[in-house]
């Protein structure tokens, strides 16, 4: 049988997909840390800068562990239902782990007083305008002794400021 002459979609990315083994390893590490540490915090970041995150990780390196992973994998590690949870009350934390879907569309770069999207900020960076405020918002807390407490709903409060030149 002859080969198809249709155009084939070729991926040009160099990033390799995560395998089941790496996801399973992350789940095991999270579960190990749940038994090792007494507290768990869920936080969101706005205007994330890697150099600041490195400083935060180094500051808390002695007595804590920070995980960045896919929300679904983290929810599986914590337990999505009361039957699957590793410790009492952890399924409440897993229910808070939600992502958001964004659409790409045409837009005016920005208007005064509007909140900026990440695409808009990338364009502004090309014009020499950079974001100056990095924020971490504590969303929830879980403790072996006290249980689960929600501080704030996961809201998109990414008010981004520009450096005025």
Put the structure in a nutshell.
With 165 residues, this protein is α+β, with helices and mostly antiparallel strands.
Descriptive keywords:
single chain, about 160 residues, alpha+beta, Alpha-Beta Plaits, 3-stranded antiparallel beta sheet, 5 helices, 3 strands, about 15% strand, disordered C terminus
Tell me the name of the CATH class of the domain at 21-102 and 134-150. Answer: Alpha Beta
Give unreliable regions as ranges: 155-165
Q: Work out the strand percent.
A: 5-15%
Percentage of residues assigned to helices: 25-40%
- Rg over CA atoms: 20 Å
How many beta-strand segments?
A: 3
Output the helix-strand order.
HEHHHHEE
| Average pLDDT number | 77
Q: Strand count, sense and closure of the main sheet?
A: 3 strands, antiparallel
The order of strands across the largest sheet is 1-2-3
| Structural class by helix and strand composition | alpha+beta
What CATH architecture of the domain at 21-102 and 134-150 would you give?
A: 2-Layer Sandwich
Note the gap between the termini: 66 Å
CATH level-3 fold name of the domain at 21-102 and 134-150: Alpha-Beta Plaits
Anisotropy-based shape: extended
For this structure, the quaternary state is single chain
GO biological process, one term: ribosomal large subunit biogenesis
Family: Belongs to the universal ribosomal protein uL10 family.
Protein name: 60S ribosomal protein L10P insertion domain-containing protein
Organism: Meloidogyne javanica
């Amino acid at each position: 049988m002859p080969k198809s002459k249709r155009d084939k979609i070729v991926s040009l990315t160099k990033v390799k997909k995560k395998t089941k083994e790496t996801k399973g390893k992350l789940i095991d590490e999270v579960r190990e840390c749940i038994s090792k540490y007494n507290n768990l915090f869920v936080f969101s970041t706005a205007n994330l800068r890697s150099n600041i995150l490195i400083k935060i990780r180094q500051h808390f390196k002695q007595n804590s562990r920070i995980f960045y992973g896919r929300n679904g994998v983290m929810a599986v590690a914590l337990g999505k239902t009361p039957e699957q949870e590793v410790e009492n009350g952890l399924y409440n934390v897993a229910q808070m782990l939600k992502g958001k879907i964004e659409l790409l569309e045409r837009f005016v770069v920005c208007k005064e007083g509007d909140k900026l999207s990440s695409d808009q900020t990338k364009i502004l960076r090309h014009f020499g305008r950079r974001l100056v405020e990095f924020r971490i918002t504590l969303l929830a807390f879980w403790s072996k002794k006290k249980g689960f407490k929600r501080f704030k709903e996961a809201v998109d409060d990414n008010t981004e400021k520009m450096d005025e030149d």
